[in-house]
Amino acid sequence: MAGNEWINGYLEAILDSGAGGSIEDKPTTADLRDSGHFNPTKYFVEEVVTGVDETDLHRTWIKVVATRNTRERSSRLENMCWRIWHLTRKKKQLEWEDLQRSAKRRMEREQGRKDATEDLSEDLSEGEKGDGVGELTHSCETPKKRFQRNSSNLEVWSDDKKEKKLYIVLISLHGLVRGENMELGRDSDTGGQVKYVVELARALAKMPGVYRVDLFTRQVLCTDVDWSYGEPTEMLSSGAEDGDGNEMGESSGAYIVRIPFGPRDKYLRKELLWPYIQEFVDGALVHILNMSKVLGEQIGEGKPIWPYVIHGHYADAGDSAALLSGALNVPMVLTGHSLGRNKLEQLLKQGRQSKEDINSTYKIMRRIEGEELALDAAELVITSTKQEIEEQWGLYDGFDVKLEKVLRARSRRGVNCHGRYMPRMVVIPPGMDFSNVVIQEDTPEVDGELTSLIGGTEGSSPKAIPTIWSEVMRFLTNPHKPMILALSRPDPKKNITTLLKAFGECRPLRELANLTLIMGNRDDIDEMTGGNANVLTTVLKMIDKYDLYGLVAYPKHHKQADVPEIYRLAAKTKGVFINPALVEPFGLTLIEAAAHGLPMVATKNGGPVDINRALNNGLLVDPHDQYAIADALLKLVSEKNLWHDCRRNGWKNIHLFSWPEHCRTYLTRVAACRMRHPQWQTDTPFEECPAEQSSLNDSLKDVQDMSLRLSIDGFSSSVDYLAASGERDIQDQVKNVMSRMKKPESISSNDNEPVKPETGLSKYPLLRKRRRLIVIALDYYDNKGEPEGKMVKILQDIMKAIRMDSLFARVSGIAISTAMSLPETQAFLKSAKLQTAEFDALICSSGSELYYPGAYAEGDGKLYPDPDYATHIDYRWGCEGLKNTIWKLMNSPDQNGGPSKTGSSSPIEKDDKLNNTHCITYLIKDPSRVMKVQDLRQKLRMRGLRCHPMYCRASTRMQIIPLLASRAQALRYLFVRWRLNVGNMFVILGETGDTDYQEMISGAHKTIVMKNVVKKGSEELMRSEIRDDMVPKDSPLVAFINGEATPDEMASALKQVSKTSAGM
């Protein structure tokens, strides 16, 4: 087949074209045999090729037929036949599998919706039935009102919000992000999204009431990219002025903040960033906490200024924003830009890659999982079009248009939704900068304007005109005729050939207008990719076929700066802009054209519908109907009054797509969200904290030169395991450190006091004075879910290792993180002959409860959970609805919510004695009959229930905890609440564990993995084991020790891993 490589190119064109019909529609074999001679190979190839309207295929077919060597020709025909037959069969198989997937998904969704509505106590009202997502408003409304569709109870963001001083965080992780000289197109990750988020940050910073906007991205210190991408911060714009013309403050404005995560010396494509997401989250927390203190001192009267909203862009940033939002308890907004499920569907339909190959290349399943997690946490999802909501987000488990409509109506009327929630989707088109657009006087007497500009009138001299005008007009016999302008890359989906066919076959249109095709830049068509080359070749042949020389312009090159001039030229000739794409997700060029005074003809599929509804400046057509395209173009270029009306409407309404309008709508929608921010019932005054503790917040005092290191400045860098170097005497090192410490009397005396017993009460936990935290999170259980006997000795050895260095022990706290309840944890510690008061924190029930021995206790010493943490994780917690739904799901035969078999026993059993306010626990009787954890989460999402399900204790328990709760998030809460930096935490794990085990490995904390300890975790109830898209390989933050290690070896491992830092 080496000599037949050319076959693949046009076979792909056969499949991409969608024509060709099915084999069953062709003449039967019997009919052809009756005609006399029958060659099955020749018949099959001829029928397929002639059944496709693709000029290039006919050219290839002619080459085959013209081959002189009979054997070679026969061989080529044979190969073509079998290749086409194989691909056709594969395509039909894929279509069948797609139908099956769609049918199964539709059934699951309908069952989920049925279960959800059955649990809602009140019948649907008329309001719930009619309140549809994206429902069109009455035709008598103005375009602006139709476009915004703001509810009457929304207060539009206006200039009277100037007294607000908001801090907004945007996140866009992949690609190369900088404010000036953006390298758009440098690679697939540095494109339109980069430009969008930078312009959004600048525009938001100029809005009344917004004090500071931070755009988080990745810091890259790599010789392959410019040095500017390694700068910790970059100012995009200074802050706005107040009403008196005074500047807002020294930290106001828009900034790019580059957080180090992943390998610092490598620029990674977005598919390789997934294992480092949690590391980014921890680094971002450092910056936000420091900035909240800085802003609090400037504008908050000493109180921290928390982010007003955290906005994630794309799946990776959405996943990150969900974790940050959960750690800080602030609202989250999501913009998908490009969605994983939609891309997966398209790639599967092409039939060139299996699902496994697609996932290996694009990490598509991790991307989809990130988008689902973002939907769980998002208050608001911003889309560009209605089509994106219905046809793209509608593919996700976490969003159902119909159920969202029901829940929104009930919420608006104050009716209980039983813990169910669907994120709110709103259409806010991207903003545009129209500062360079010059709107000309719209008068009907401009017929001779172009003539005067190019010197076509008698006695006039030619004026200097843009170079691109000359480049276009050299193709045209009469450049004064109205210009039909199409601007897109030569992609088959852009449907340029249908436009050319419509123009070529409509004589009145040819007589009235010229056609200009701006199809990217090209040097040699033969060197272009197959799809683009085929389109360009077809265009040239169609121009020749219809003899359109002098009527069609198709310049080879243009610069980005030439595009406004191209629009201006078309407007000077009273032309029309057309976008005939088969489907157009948004249609930015339509807005650009309208800004330059061009009416439009556009596809009726996708974003142009919303754009035309807003601008009311053109006509929509079926892109498959060449006659409809020709009629719409002819109508606009021939009817002058209609042309002027469309031109005026476009200019009148174009402000709807400006950045100020975008930001005004954006802030209006965000203000309508449920506002949340950290609120402690038991406040911790900053002045009561140790002086060393405040050093965390000093690292970002100078906003222009921020230190984003994850270790605390000053004391922490010197105190890190003083015995580790071995080069200086310990006493000398201690003296050196002590000389740099601030030593208030009260703090020193308190620090020297011994740990109080459980019954001793303290206003605040000792944890807030700690420099480090050692977290023991070994999931070591027997087949009954009880702690293994060896766990006692391991715990005792870890405690000895920590206490071997007195200075280290003095500044270090110890915590246990476990799936056991508080009584079980206390009983286990008692069996190990350890007092509860020896621990600074107990993270119990998989992160649903947090206790501080020595504080938050009753008079008799009984511990009670941190009330602030309980309030923190209560977000979207629907306990009763979850109990009913999980029991029904686990007891259905197909585990899809259907009726259970008569007489069959349940695979789970309620374990009420281990339940608490934020944890539902079940005993697993038969692990083989329960769902995988991801499948369970999928079913719950389809029913509008947002939570964190997991299997634990060697697959003997199932626990359902709130969405914002987990053992990993509990550590971040300790950082936010008590300023105990995650980068100074050490987590001790086994080689496997509960289904949240992977979350505990990743992050900016140090991890010590004990080998050969935990033999069996709960990994059998996950879809897959540890994945490289969840946990980084060969991370310097992870150390390994043997399970039989002595306390000395454990202490050595702690010292070794303490020397590393995140992002190295």
UniProtKB/TrEMBL annotation:
Family listed: Belongs to the glycosyltransferase 1 family.
Catalysed reaction, written as an equation: beta-D-fructose 6-phosphate + UDP-alpha-D-glucose = sucrose 6(F)-phosphate + UDP + H(+)
Transmembrane segments: none
Name assigned to this protein: Sucrose-phosphate synthase
Ranges where the record places region Disordered: 105-138, 740-760, 891-912
Gene3D superfamilies in the record: Glycogen Phosphorylase B
Compositionally biased residues, Polar residues: 892-907
Entry-linked PANTHER family: SUCROSE-PHOSPHATE SYNTHASE 3-RELATED
Domain Sucrose phosphatase-like: 810-1015
The UniProt record lists the keyword Phosphoprotein: no
Sequence ranges assigned to domain Glycosyl transferase family in this UniProt record: 478-650
Swiss-Prot/TrEMBL keywords: Glycosyltransferase, Transferase
Top EC group: transferase
GO biological process: sucrose biosynthetic process
Single GO molecular function: sucrose-phosphate synthase activity
Organism (species): Linum trigynum
Subunit structure: Homodimer or homotetramer.
Highest taxon in the source lineage: Eukaryota
Job description of the protein: Plays a role in photosynthetic sucrose synthesis by catalyzing the rate-limiting step of sucrose biosynthesis from UDP-glucose and fructose- 6-phosphate. Involved in the regulation of carbon partitioning in the leaves of plants. May regulate the synthesis of sucrose and therefore play a major role as a limiting factor in the export of photoassimilates out of the leaf. Plays a role for sucrose availability that is essential for plant growth and fiber elongation.
